[in-house]
Specification:
The protein has helices at about 35-45, 70-75, 100-105, 125-140, 140-150, 190, 200-210, 260-270; strands at about 5-10, 15-20, 25-30, 160, 195, 220-225, 225-235, 240-245, 250-255. It has about 280 residues and is α+β, with helices and mostly antiparallel strands. Helix 1 (about 35-45) packs parallel to helix 4 (about 125-140) and helix 1 (about 35-45) packs across helix 5 (about 140-150).
Length: about 280
C-alpha cells in the first residue's frame, strides 16, 4: 500500500509535507468549512444583519412554527437529520442545488427527527440550510459573505469554493491517476464544500482559536475539555484541526477519506506539541 500524502502544521514544529502533499495547493477541507460558516453567522449577528435566535422562517420559506433558530442550526440541535434525503452513492452532493434545498426547506417540518434544542445530532443538512439563511439575510452569496466578513479581516485569500484546476491537489488512484473529488460547490458548500491550502487553513486555525482575532470562537467548534476542534472528510480527503487553552494547536490534512486515521494523527501531534508562535510559514 502506498504512503498517504500528509501535511502537518503544529505550534512547535516547522510545517511538514510528506509523500507528495503540498502546503500551498488547494485541497478539500470538508466539514472544517462549518466553523467558518459559524464564524460568519456570529459576524453577521455582531453587525446587526441578523440575530442568532432568529427563527428559520424569518430568512427562508420554511413553515412557521417549527421553533428552529439559526443558533439551533449552528449547534446541531435543530432536529434535522445528518444528511439530506435522496443522496447518490457516488458524488453524493452533486444534485443538491439551490432549488432542491429550497424544496427541502419548504417541508422542513416533515424532515426533523425531534424538537429543536433537544438532543444534538450532527447535521450536514442543517449547515446547508444555515448557509442559505445567511445568504438570504445578508442579500449576497455565501462565498462573497465569507470573504467579506471572515477571510478579508484575517488577510487570508487561499480559501475558495472553486479554485483553479491547476492549483488543486488530488488524491491518486490506480496507475497514479487523479481521483475525481466530490462536487460540493452547490447548496452543500456551507456545510463542507470549501477548498483551501493547508497553509491558509493553519492560519485560520491560529487566527480563530489561538489569537482570537475575530473574538470568541464560533459555536460551531466542537469542545472536549480544554480542546476546541473540528474535523472534516470528503471521499478522498480528510482534515483535523484543534487548539488547546494553553496555546498548543495542530492542523493535519491527508489525501485520504479515512477521517479516523487523520483524527488520531492530529491528536497525537497535538499531544506532543508545545505552545509557540503561529508557525505557518
Amino acid at each position: 500500500m502506498s504512503a498517504i500524502p500528509t501535511c502537518v502544521f503544529t505550534s512547535s514544529d516547522a510545517p511538514r509535507a510528506e509523500h507528495g502533499h503540498d502546503p500551498d495547493r488547494f485541497v478539500q477541507i470538508g466539514s472544517l468549512t462549518k466553523p467558518l460558516t459559524g464564524t460568519l453567522l456570529v459576524r453577521l449577528a455582531e453587525t446587526g444583519v441578523l440575530h442568532l435566535d432568529d427563527p428559520l422562517d424569518t430568512h427562508l420559506p420554511a413553515p412557521a412554527g417549527t421553533g428552529i433558530t439559526l443558533r439551533h442550526l449552528a449547534l446541531h440541535t435543530s432536529g434535522l437529520p445528518r444528511l439530506p434525503p435522496g443522496l447518490r452513492r457516488f458524488d453524493p452532493y452533486a444534485s443538491l442545488d439551490a432549488q432542491r434545498l429550497d424544496a427541502l426547506v419548504r417541508r422542513v417540518d416533515s424532515l426533523v427527527t425531534g424538537p429543536p434544542d433537544g438532543t444534538e445530532e450532527y447535521s450536514n443538512l442543517g449547515y446547508a440550510v444555515l448557509g442559505a439563511a445567511l445568504a438570504s439575510a445578508a442579500g449576497a452569496p455565501y462565498a462573497e459573505l465569507l470573504h467579506q466578513y471572515v477571510l478579508a479581516p484575517l488577510d487570508i485569500t487561499e480559501v475558495a469554493s472553486n479554485p483553479p484546476q491547476d492549483q488543486r491537489l488530488y488524491a491518486r488512484g490506480l496507475f497514479g491517476r487523479p481521483r475525481r473529488p466530490w462536487t460540493m460547490d452547490g447548496a452543500i458548500l456551507p456545510a463542507g464544500g470549501l477548498w483551501a491550502t493547508p497553509r491558509a487553513t493553519a492560519r485560520l486555525v491560529t487566527a480563530l482559536l489561538v489569537e482570537r482575532r475575530l473574538g470568541e470562537p464560533a459555536p460551531s467548534w466542537q469542545t472536549s475539555g480544554p480542546l476546541l476542534w473540528h474535523n472534516g472528510a470528503t471521499g478522498d480527503a480528510s482534515v483535523f484541526a484543534g487548539a488547546m487553552a494553553d496555546g498548543r494547536w495542530v492542523l493535519v490534512h491527508r489525501l485520504s477519506g479515512d477521517a479516523e486515521g487523520t483524527d488520531q494523527l492530529g491528536i497525537e501531534r497535538l499531544r506532543h506539541a508545545s505552545p509557540g508562535p503561529s508557525r505557518t510559514g
